[in-house]
Amino acid sequence: MSLNKHGIKILNNVIKDNVYLDNINEKLYEWLEEKNQKYNRTDSCLHHLLVYDKTLFNKILTILGRNKDIKNYFKTGFIMHSCGAVINQPKKTAYTHNWHIDTYEETNENVMLNVLVPLVDFTIENGCTKIYPKDGDSYKQIQLKKGDILLFNSGLKHCTGNNKSKFDRNCITITLIKMYMKPQFDYLKLFTDKELTVLDDKIKVLINYYSQLPSNLEDFYNKTYKLLIKG
């Protein structure tokens, strides 16, 4: 399958460090408990993971920032709209199990891209993601290997499958948007100026560093802001 024809693309075995993925997987449970206690929630979804650890996802973000399929999809600069996670637990459901789209309307315009990073293998039994491809009359159950990355057009109908296994099926969920659009969270403010100096330039693009706006005339006239249209 391809992004151009089907709106779906699997990047096979692009993350080869299983220890890295296992570390993220373990931390999800710590963060979920913290979130649910602090905000009186009971769901199994996490949002804006960089709030919990702003450097842990650098390896994933660097891969996305350099990927040619994503660049060809947007044909212009792109930034990160959101970065979350779904813990798909056996015999439990969340809002992600309902068929939905993540853009404002159902469209084939390439304005937003969904990215799923499986932290375990995705199988039909443990509730792999279901997606209706472009112009497709039936949905596809997208089975993935740990280390793969799934890309798909955010305007495609999709949902989390029901987990009928005995184990959680966890993944990182990232959305990317064109650079002129508004992100869901101001990730740039999580970083100090010193921390920004050592970040990979592709990550700085993703967290909106190169498309920030001046907030006063002093910055407008004297500070150099770069807009990387080509990403």
Strand order of the largest sheet: 1-7-4-9-3-2
Going by CATH, the homologous superfamily would be q2cbj1_9rhob like domain
Q: Which segments are poorly predicted (pLDDT under 50) over 5 or more consecutive residues?
A: 227-231
Q: Provide mean pLDDT, rounded.
A: 91
CATH class: Mainly Beta
Overview of the structural elements:
With 231 residues, the protein is of the alpha+beta class. The protein has 6 helices and 9 strands; from the N terminus they run βαβααβββββββααα. It has one domain: Jelly Rolls (Sandwich), CATH 2.60.120. The chain is globular and about 60 Å long. Residues 227-231 have low confidence and may be disordered.
What key phrases describe this protein's structure?
alpha+beta, disordered C terminus, 3-stranded antiparallel beta sheet, Jelly Rolls
Q: Topology, pairings included?
A:
Layout: E1 8-11, H1 18-39, E2 45-46, H2 58-66, H3 68-74, E3 78-88, E4 112-118, E5 129-131, E6 140-142, E7 149-153, E8 158-159, E9 169-178, H4 193-197, H5 201-206, H6 217-222
Antiparallel strand pairs: 1-7, 2-3, 3-9, 4-7, 4-9, 5-6, 5-8
